[in-house]
Amino acid sequence: MHPLFEYRLKRVDSPFWAFAIHDGHQISDEVMPYMRLNETERLREEDPYTATFAELPVNQFMVSTSRFQLDINRQPEDAVYLRPEQAWGLQVWKKTLPAELLHQLYAEHAAIHQKIEAWIQHSIAHYGFFVVLDIHSYNAKRSNPDDIVDTHANPQINLGTAYNHPKWDYIAKSFSESISQHKLFDGAVDIRENIKFKGGYVAQQLTQKFGEQGCVLSIEFRKDFMDEWTGIPYPPLIKEYKQLLLYALNNLQDLFKNGAR
């Protein structure tokens, strides 16, 4: 039987990590016969191009499997979307998944979380700390493609930090200030904390277990860099966002080189 969860891992000499855990679009052969949603419907709620953002000069963890097969950023009981209320009102499956298949999916969820924890423990052991840039994106045109985005309720960048130990507040502040120093096509960057999202299950687990040793910045980009209904990307804006991430990352690295902690 093929693995039901696939990902790409790149390790470098760094305590920093870039995660793209909702970038994936793959559905396994074993699961596809049960899948009710088509590719376009799935893509709408996935986070395409976030793996491109996560291609930073740090450790990288990029998920290839679609969140509609297994969502590792949900707690175990919600990691497979069995009910519409778990999936934006969508009916994901044509028919009930076999118990054996469900069991394997839940086992994959437990296994990858064990691996993530081991990777972070390794970073702590070698560097004394860790920082995860947990990169996501979100929809702001919920009703139809012609919606006018409510920019008050939907910042360009939502920084989820709610689960971090307060000792790391200066990390979030440094990240936000680095981003705010720049402009996007002559406009100020709207980055705010914990407006739309506070961080998911991965952030909760890592901060609960290792919160004294590091933090997770859950970075949600509003899908301005693409057409959120068709998935068509806007490459110039993707490039601009990635440059913002690189600049903020460099500033964070400098903080630690200068003895922060």
What does this structure look like?
A hairpin with a 2-residue loop joins strand 6 (183-184) and strand 7. This protein has helices spanning 39-45, 50-53, 99-127, 169-180, 201-210, 235-257; strands spanning 7-10, 16-20, 59-63, 130-138, 157-160, 183-184, 187-188, 191-193, 214-222. It has one domain (7-257): Zn-dependent exopeptidases (Aminopeptidase, 3-Layer(aba) Sandwich), CATH 3.40.630. It has 6 helices and 9 strands; from the N terminus they run ββααβαββαβββαβα. The chain starts with 6 loop residues before the first strand and ends with a helix. The longest helix has 29 residues, at 99-127. It is globular. The protein has 261 residues and is of the alpha/beta class. Helix 4 (169-180) crosses helix 6. Strands 1-3-2-4-9-5-8 form a 7-stranded mixed sheet, sandwiched between helices. Keywords: Hydrolase. It holds the Pfam family FGase.
